User: Fold this.
Amino acid sequence: MSTSLIAMGVALFLVINLVVGLAALSLLLGTFETLFGKPKLTILRSTKNGPYLAFGFKWNSAKEPATVDYVSLRLFNPFGNPKQAEVSKTFEAKSSSFAEEVDMGPGFIELLGAEKFDLATVQVVVKSSKNGVSWQFDMKGSKFKKLISNANLTTSQFLEGHKVGVAQESKPPIDIPIRSFIADTVPGKGAQIAIPTNPAFAAQFAGVAPAAQASGAGAPAAENFKVTKVWIEPGCIVCNACEDIYKDVFEVKADTCIIRPNAPLDDGLRIREAAEACPVEVIKFTIAS
Ligand code: SF4
Assistant:
């Protein structure tokens, strides 16, 4: 069997698997929707005397927007009498899940008292008169009676328990800090250095004795010193600052700075000035004792 035939077979197998997988996933999602996404009717305990039907109704109002305002009970009673009966009532329209206690009128009592009621089918219909949407729930008469007699939640308990009609506590707004993607100025970096060779301070140092220049105008004259060794550690960014300050000692090359051969080491103040001006602090020196 040729290689191309094998490849085609593998590709076909993968495609079939993909299709079957997607179909299974679709069915699964549909099942979940059917089982858990359906509107739900709950028969509740009436707190009033009389022909009241108390019930709760939950549905996905976002998916099925409607104003629900109608409930009816239909009786299909082939083995008893009457064969059919219906009571209905409108109530204040609700636009989301709710619980209601509705006076169904005397027909409700007659319907419940129908002969062979337990064998009949009861159909509860909840609908929106305005939107033409309706949901119906069919059950045996015996089950309907059982739901009414076993109901222990009142409408208010149902609403509270299901957080229906209660405004959801608003979540605190997300606090988004104001950020700048431009780095803040690092304190001290970029500040002008008060040295005689800095043109911005040239006037300030004009006429001041060299010994005093090293430590700033108006400052007490610093005593000069000798160094025994001066060197450049790795990391020079060839900014020329040191050479501008003391070109007899520092020579900036294409990719680094070097100490000139036979550089004078007797003006420690200027060497220190150059070291302090170095933005990456790679100029090191040792002071002669
Ligand atoms: S001042 Fe520092 S970084 Fe600039 S050239 Fe001299 S050694 Fe290099």
Observations:
- The domain at 224-287 is CATH 3.30.70.20 (Alpha-Beta Plaits).
- Residues 30-36, 166-173, 177-191, 208-218 have pLDDT under 50 and may be disordered.
- The pocket of iron/sulfur cluster is lined by residues 232, 236-242, 250, 252, 257, 278, 280, 282-283 (CB under 6 Å).
